[in-house]
């Protein structure tokens, strides 16, 4: 039985600063029971009458958009929200009336097919969500049975508020649970919250002593009863207020006792918990927000075209109705020219006496007839194309990261074409440009710098200072033999392999390495097979420190009830010994404290405070006699920051027994209180303890650039894409990373905006908040104005390529983003080649993204990997998540996910350009073919004096957009390539066609519509004239509506499909099948449909085999129409390609004509493709060449001047 296991004895009740065990109540806890704090949970009594009266939500979670009952009405509503679909619904309803120019079935069936296809797509997507729900809701967890004290497996969906559950190691929590006890003696457990906040570090949770002391095994819960009164369901992940009523005790509860749904139990064998919140009341579901609805610019413009076409349809109907009314009125008085319409027998439609009403009825009929100007299958075809494009993106092997088995993943297909229109990329730094895989590379101990490793920033600095030879030397120095150790890139023979004992300050080195091994919250895991020790740490930095300590001879291998065990090299004996440090307190790290400390007792009984933290908080805490190495350490820290490294200061002190007793008493009282100022009390007490420290040194870890980042940035810059970096790192680190990835270069003028001026610092010391804010605001505005003036003056006479970089910190950004000044900030930023925002909060990242998106009106793309990037990703037009090491929160909130930043190059320059080009051409062609078809209807109706007579059979009308012209346009949207991937890379400026929206401009759209008008005119007039005097049977019957309509329809099918042949740039076998298959399908349909009884086929009965096919004029007319309809487009494209080529057309010339016989043209196009960039490695090389040229020019001038003086 599970309950028979031996509990792990690890007593951490006094270690963590924010645990809550022996708590006491204060008066302000009276909020329990009031508004917002009314939840009552009867633990272990979910079936009690009191519990059932509460009627809390069940634990079944549904993320689907539809239910079986709501699918049909809700999805129909979604479909008919589209104005085009609603229009076709109205015309379909009108087709049921006598006003309809065609049969109701032929009108409603295509609409039904289109709506059904869209609903099927919606259903498939929702079924995927349903399957995920089923998988989650059917997970099993052990639930207490009640009277018999046994735990039985139940599905998650069956859980109720008040149930007692047992969760095993590596399992997810099924609901929000109150932690009662765990496998550790003091009910501590370790929780991974990656699904909640994207963080992979483990969190420590701890139950109350009142429950952990009595609930050890399964059978202990048989008689357990308690009542929890707590806050109502809310979305705050980091707070929880409640009370536990256990027997006569009334105990306060905090977030430390709350285990959140979808968190995972780690490094703990099992926990017992009481269900507090279930299903949609849980905090993780409360945090679930509907992702913002994003639509591409092309789709929004397409809506405008649809509205324009509606205007055209209504205008044509209006004009036709006026003419029809006039002609109908003229039929009065026996002068009837349209005798065949029998106006004398007409009730209204052709009645000369009621011409105005006839005109109104005609208007409604014409609106139905001209509905074929609107492509009914446009939306569904685009949806199909985008889904297929997304499949190709997901399947691209060149965007697959083998190391983590992560392919690209287009989480939504709505924004495919938007990838080809990106103007600005806003990027996170850590984990996006860098690996978020920290490596211990340097350290400063006792004023001496150690570590011969070379960072990428140092190589970049060497290169930008002109020292290529130096960079080569550094590379040689960085070479190291032996296997790669994750988190450790340190090399220095002075301290490696135990050589540190020979150093003059060996005792300081010993304390330094010992602090690395002891001052942390990492958890060791020993592989039983190999004996190797690995670590679970709260952050990559901390893992790197523990690994470094191990590699330098201080191996942390065990955490027990009494503390931490390490194997260290004894300074006196020179041998490895095991030592245990009793861990008394952990003063945890947070963003306000910027430090972390532990209080331990060593084997000699000494009390030690070991501390590590940021330089700006640690140096001020040093004792007077603890600053021996301060000056040298500060120098090293500055050097490390310049090299792009993250630094921490290490210090310690011995603690007096009496002092510790006093601290422990105050500390326990503070952490046991439940007042609002509990955190400030703890901070105040720990602050007093962390004083008078003795400096040991500093650590430096490197967050390496991801592979290919500089090259990717360079290529994006050549494509004209602007790149902004929004990071939480300090300014020095961000600047040096900017140099390393070529966002910054030596010749750039840096416009730095910060609040580090002496005046602001003096005001901050004075502490007058309003004065500080006003002075800070004025300072930021002044710096922005000065920067803008600098840019406005333009490049200096000596350098026309001068570029500017804007670097601003988080404090300044607060004021720059205020409504009164944000436009100034945007104007300044857009005038700079590079923008780096340092110390940015998640909210500031989102606000900057919103400002760029709304202020420039251009497409923005945000890319990040962490939970702090979610706001930025959702605010941008396109959000790209990096599936890195910071969890999946960013990926889950993104529109697309990739594994490495470098894949952004292919995603944008190749897939982005292709999708933009394909969708643009596809929509233009859609309107072309429908205008061609619709204008022939209009011309025929005009030819018949606007009598609302359609030129074609009902089913001809219905199936044009569904069968005879739809598949080729889908194939165009999926397979066409105006330029190959290789040329997309070679000519990156091609990407600007999308940024400037050249392929979907109004000029191009109107041009395609005009082409459709020309085709329609050629079709109608050639067919009408050629068939006017033709005989089609032995009885001398001339061509009627059936013959003329069949001939015109054949010409339309041929012309629109041959137009597709001329428009395609890249043929595949799929295009051949769908184009020629669509033409063949028309003839097959005409034969089969014509063979059906006349009551169904009406005027198409035997029209093809018996009338059209035997007549040579039919085939000759079709040939003539194809020539006359397509020659104008062919001539236009030929002239354009020869004399006014677009950029992609110039590249097509290279591909087809100029590969070998016109090298000058190739080079000319190549030079045009290289944008004069101001960032990237290309710009850096160009600047180096310019510097060299100016040097030689000056040298020649000096030589000439000297020669003249000698003469």
UniProtKB/TrEMBL annotation:
Binding site for Mg(2+): 428, 430, 865, 869
Keyword tags: ATP-binding, Magnesium, Membrane, Metal-binding, Nucleotide-binding, Translocase, Transmembrane, Transmembrane helix
Transmembrane segments: 305-327, 359-380, 926-943, 955-975, 1005-1023, 1043-1066, 1073-1092, 1112-1132
Reaction catalysis annotation: ATP + H2O + phospholipidSide 1 = ADP + phosphate + phospholipidSide 2
GO terms assigned for molecular function: ATP binding; ATP hydrolysis activity; ATPase-coupled intramembrane lipid transporter activity; magnesium ion binding
Keyword Lipid metabolism part of the UniProt annotation: no
Binding site for ATP: 428-430, 542, 589, 612, 646, 727-729, 839, 845, 868-869
CDD domains for the chain: P-type_ATPase_APLT_Dnf-like
Domain P-type ATPase N-terminal positions: 41-107
The protein's role, per its UniProt record: Involved in transport of phospholipids.
Protein name, entry field: Phospholipid-transporting ATPase
Organism the protein comes from: Brassica napus (Rape)
Lineage: Eukaryota, Viridiplantae, Streptophyta, Embryophyta, Tracheophyta
Gene: BnaC05g08970D
């Amino acid at each position: 039985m599970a309950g028979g296991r031996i509990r792990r004895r690890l007593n951490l009740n006094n270690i963590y600063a924010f645990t809550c065990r022996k708590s006491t109540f204060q008066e302000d806890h009276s909020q329990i029971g009031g508004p917002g704090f009314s939840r009552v949970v009867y633990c272990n009594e979910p079936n009690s009458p009191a519990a059932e009266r509460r009627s809390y939500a069940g634990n079944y979670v549904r993320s689907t958009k539809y239910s079986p009952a709501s699918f049909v009405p809700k999805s129909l509503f979604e479909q008919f929200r589209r104005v085009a679909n609603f229009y076709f619904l109205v015309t379909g309803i009108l087709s049921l009336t006598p006003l309809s120019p065609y049969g109701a079935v032929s009108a409603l069936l295509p609409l039904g097919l289109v709506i059904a296809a869209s609903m099927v797509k919606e259903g498939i997507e929702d079924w995927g969500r349903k399957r995920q729900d089923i998988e989650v809701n059917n997970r099993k967890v052990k639930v207490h049975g009640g009277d018999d004290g046994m735990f039985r497996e139940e599905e998650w969906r069956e859980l109720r508020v008040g149930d007692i559950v047992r969760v095993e190691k590596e399992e997810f929590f099924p609901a929000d649970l109150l932690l009662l006890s765990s496998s550790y003696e003091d009910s501590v457990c370790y929780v991974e919250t990656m699904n909640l906040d994207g963080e992979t570090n483990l969190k420590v949770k701890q139950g109350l002593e009142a429950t952990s002391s009595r609930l050890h095994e399964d059978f202990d819960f048989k008689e357990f009863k308690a009542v929890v009164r707590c806050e109502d369901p809310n979305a705050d992940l980091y707070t929880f207020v409640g009370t536990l009523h256990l027997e006569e005790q009334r105990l306060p509860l905090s977030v430390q006792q709350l285990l959140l749904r979808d968190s995972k139990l780690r490094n703990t064998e099992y926990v017992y918990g009481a269900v507090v919140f279930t299903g949609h009341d849980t905090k993780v579901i409360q945090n679930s927000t509907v992702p913002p609805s994003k639509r591409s610019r092309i789709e929004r413009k397409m809506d405008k075209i649809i509205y324009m076409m509606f205007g055209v349809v209504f205008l044509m109907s209006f004009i036709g109705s006026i003419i029809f009314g006039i002609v109908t009125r003229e039929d009065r008085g026996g002068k009837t020219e349209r005798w065949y319409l029998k106006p004398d027998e007409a009730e209204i439609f052709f009645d000369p006496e009621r011409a105005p009403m006839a005109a109104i009825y005609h208007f409604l009929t014409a609106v139905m007839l001209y509905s074929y100007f609107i492509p009914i299958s446009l939306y569904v075809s685009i949806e199909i194309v985008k889904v297929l494009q997304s499949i190709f993106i997901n399947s691209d092997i060149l965007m697959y990261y083998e190391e983590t088995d992560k392919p690209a993943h287009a989480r939504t297909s709505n924004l495919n074409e938007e990838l080809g229109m990106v103007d600005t990329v806003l990027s996170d730094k850590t984990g996006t440009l860098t690996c978020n895989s920290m490596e211990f590379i340097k350290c400063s101990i006792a004023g001496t710098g150690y570590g011969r490793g070379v960072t990428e920033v140092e190589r970049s600095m060497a290169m930008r200072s002109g020292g290529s030879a130096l960079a080569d030397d550094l590379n040689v120095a960085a070479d190291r033999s032996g296997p790669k150790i994750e988190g450790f890139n340190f090399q220095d023979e002075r301290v490696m392999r135990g050589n540190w004992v020979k150093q003059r300050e060996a005792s300081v080195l010993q304390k330094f390495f010992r602090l690395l091994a002891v001052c942390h919250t990492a958890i060791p895991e020993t592989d039983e097979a190999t004996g190797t020790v690995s670590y679970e740490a709260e952050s990559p930095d901390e893992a790197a420190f523990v690994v470094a300590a191990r590699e330098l001879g201080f191996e942390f291998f065990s955490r027990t009830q009494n503390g931490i065990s390490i194997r260290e090299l004894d300074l006196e004996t020179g041998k490895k010994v095991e030592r245990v440090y009793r861990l008394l307190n952990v003063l945890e790290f947070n963003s306000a404290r910027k430090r972390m400390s532990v209080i331990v007792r060593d084997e000699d009984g000494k009390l030690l405070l070991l501390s590590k933290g940021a330089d700006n908080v640690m140096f001020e805490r040093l004792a007077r006699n603890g600053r021996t190495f301060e000056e040298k350490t500060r120098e090293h820290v500055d050097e490390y920051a310049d090299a792009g490294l993250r630094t921490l200061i290490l210090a310690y002190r011995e603690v007096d027994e009496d002092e510790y007793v006093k601290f422990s008493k105050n500390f326990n009282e503070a952490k046991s209180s439940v007042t609002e100022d509990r955190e400030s009390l703890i901070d105040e007490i720990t602050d007093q303890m962390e004083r008078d420290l003795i400096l040991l040194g500093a650590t430096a870890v490197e967050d390496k650039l991801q592979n290919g980042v500089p090259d990717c940035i360079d290529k994006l810059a050549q494509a004209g894409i602007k790149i902004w970096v929004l990071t939480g790192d300090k300014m020095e680190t961000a600047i040096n990373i900017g140099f390393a990835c070529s966002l910054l270069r030596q010749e750039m003028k840096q416009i730095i905006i910060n609040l580090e001026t002496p005046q602001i610092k003096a005001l901050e010391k004075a502490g007058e908040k309003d004065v500080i804010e006003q002075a800070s605001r004025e300072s930021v505005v002044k710096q922005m104005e000065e920067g803008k003036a600098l840019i406005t003056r333009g490049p200096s006479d000596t350098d026309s390529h001068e570029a500017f970089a804007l670097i601003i910190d988080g404090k300044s950004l607060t004021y720059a983003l205020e409504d009164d000044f944000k436009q100034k900030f945007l104007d300044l930023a857009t005038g700079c080649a590079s923008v780096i925002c340092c110390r940015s909060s998640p909210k500031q990242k989102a606000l900057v993204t919103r400002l760029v998106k709304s202020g420039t009106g251009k497409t923005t793309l945000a890319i990040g990997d962490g939970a702090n990037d979610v706001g930025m990703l959702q605010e941008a037009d396109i959000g790209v998540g990096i599936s890195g090491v910071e969890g999946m929160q960013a990926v889950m909130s993104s529109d697309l996910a990739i594994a490495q930043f470098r894949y952004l190059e292919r995603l944008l320059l190749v897939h982005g350009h292709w999708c933009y080009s394909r969708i643009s051409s596809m929509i233009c062609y859609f309107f072309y073919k429908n205008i061609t078809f619709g204008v022939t209807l209009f011309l025929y109706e005009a030819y018949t004096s606007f009598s609302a007579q359609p030129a074609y059979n009902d089913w001809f009308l219905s199936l044009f957009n569904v069968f005879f012209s739809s598949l080729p346009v889908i194939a165009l949207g999926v397979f066409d390539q105006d330029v190959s991937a290789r040329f997309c890379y070679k000519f990156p400026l091609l990407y600007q066609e999308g940024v400037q929206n050249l392929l979907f401009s109004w000029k191009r759209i109107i041009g395609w519509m005009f082409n459709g008008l020309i085709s329609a005119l050629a079709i109608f007039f050639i067919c009408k004239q050629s068939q006017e005097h033709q005989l089609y049977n032995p009885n001398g019957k001339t061509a009627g509506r059936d013959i003329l309509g069949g001939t015109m329809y054949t010409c339309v099918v041929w012309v629109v499909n041959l137009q597709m042949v001329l428009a395609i740039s890249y043929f595949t076998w799929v295009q051949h099948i769908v184009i020629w298959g669509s033409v063949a399908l028309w003839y097959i349909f005409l034969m089969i449909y014509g063979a059906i009884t006349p009551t169904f086929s009406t005027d198409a009965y035997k029209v093809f085999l018996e009338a059209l096919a035997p007549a040579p004029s039919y085939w000759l007319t079709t040939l003539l129409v194809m020539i006359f309809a397509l020659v104008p487009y062919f001539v236009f494209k030929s002239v354009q390609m020869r004399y006014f080529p677009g950029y992609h057309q110039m590249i097509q010339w290279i591909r087809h004509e100029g590969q070998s016989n016109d090298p000058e043209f190739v080079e000319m196009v190549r030079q045009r493709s290289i944008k004069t960039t101001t960032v990237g490695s290309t710009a850096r090389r160009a600047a180096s060449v310019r510097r060299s040229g100016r040097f030689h020019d000056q040298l020649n001038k000096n030589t000439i001047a000297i020669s003249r003086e000698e003469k």
